[in-house]
Design goal:
With 105 residues, the protein is α+β, with helices and mostly antiparallel strands. 24% of the residues lie in helices and 31% in strands. The strands form two sheets. It has a five-stranded mixed barrel with strand order 1-4-3-5-7. It has a two-stranded antiparallel sheet with strand order 2-6.
Length: 105
């Protein structure tokens, strides 16, 4: 029986669910449907610490993406998000104007 252990902070638990939990659920249900991901232009830069994968909630408007928060994710940012960008652990983030992969919520 698979078990997903999530952090105690609710924002971190939500990020873990979207990044890992949903994939586990798709595998267990034998679903071949993948979440909708598309490239969009970043309106403001996203800074991240090297060695740490980061979940960044974003608002998608037309073909532009605006990051709503970094690190600690306040409820207002999570409630207003229409998608998220996952910054890989080996990256320092993305510069403004970069094309980033956005996963819809």
């Amino acid at each position: 029986m698979p078990v997903l252990i999530v952090p105690g902070r609710l924002d971190a638990a939500l990020a873990v669910w979207h990044v890992i939990g949903a994939r586990i659920l798709r595998l267990l249900s034998a679903s071949t449907e993948m979440p909708a991901t598309h490239g969009a232009t970043l309106a403001r830069k996203i800074a991240s610490t090297v060695g740490l994968a980061e979940f960044v909630p974003v608002r998608v408007e037309n073909d532009a993406v605006t990051p709503l928060a970094f690190g600690y994710l306040p409820w207002r940012a999570l409630a207003g998000a229409t998608g998220y960008v996952l910054v890989p652990a080996h990256s320092e983030g993305y510069a403004a104007g970069a094309i980033v992969p956005v996963t819809r919520l």
